Each structure stands twice: as structure tokens, then as C-alpha cells.
Amino acid sequence: MPGETSAQPPAGGVSPEVFLAMGREVLAAQAFSQxxxxxxxxxxxxxxxxxxxxxxDLLQQHGFVHGGVLSYVADNALTYAGGTAMQVPVVTSExxxxxxxxxxxxxxxxxxxxxxxxxxxxxxxCDVFVVQAGVEKLCAxxxxxxxxxxxxxxxxxxxxxxx
Length: 163
Description:
The protein has 163 residues and is of the alpha+beta class.
């Protein structure tokens, strides 16, 4: 059915391992992602799981993970989900995040999925979990619209612009 992503094979018939490696190359080209220490744990068309170890320098004054860090993991995971669903270079058009509880723990996990996509945009959702003592707790939810880059911009896009 058009717009469904769960049963699609990776782009161009590549193996799931090669698809994940390609996604990791894009993440490695993003200096900000490297600064934060994000890692891409899972990637398939329309789905993404991004991890970020929590460090003291990512906390705000009350000892919780800063909201900007939560927004980063949600935004990047949403963009991966949308880009892999559409299988073209993309950027975030807009997104909204709801903070549900303070993120206190050892690791952030952002799991995003494309809910619907066309050739020009994808609507995606993301759940952000904090892991403390091996237990995941939902700390934020986000929804966003991911837009395909116009052809002339996509041709000039670097891998960093694709996620």
C-alpha cells in the first residue's frame, strides 16, 4: 500500500547491513552529531534508531538532559526516517516536540518512523526514551514533516545534508 514503509527492502536492493553503513556515513559527516556522540543503531526504510550517551556536559542546571539535546535526537531520527522512506536527500521542514518527563539516566534512544510519505514529503513520529539502570522510560515525543530537497539542491547536497 502506498505510504507504508515497514515491508520495504532497503534502497537499491542493498543489504540491511550496507544500508545501515550508508546511514552511519551520513551521521559521521555531521560535525554536530559527532560533537554530541550520537550513534546510528538501526536503519531501514522509514525507520531509525539513534542513540546518544548522556554526559554531564549535556545536562541543564537541574541535572536533566537539556531540551535542545532531546530536540536534536528527535529531529535527526525523524529526518532519517523520512529520508529513508522517500529515498532522496531531505531536510526537516518542521517538527514539534513534547517533553513528558525529565531525562535522567545513561542513554537517550530516539526511535522514529515514517507514518506517511509521498515523493515530496514525509510525516514522521519519534519517541525519545531515557535509559536508567537498564530501564527505558519515555521522556519525549515528536512529530515532523521531512521535505525532499529540490533536484538542483539535492545534486549539490553533501551527505551531511541528507539526514
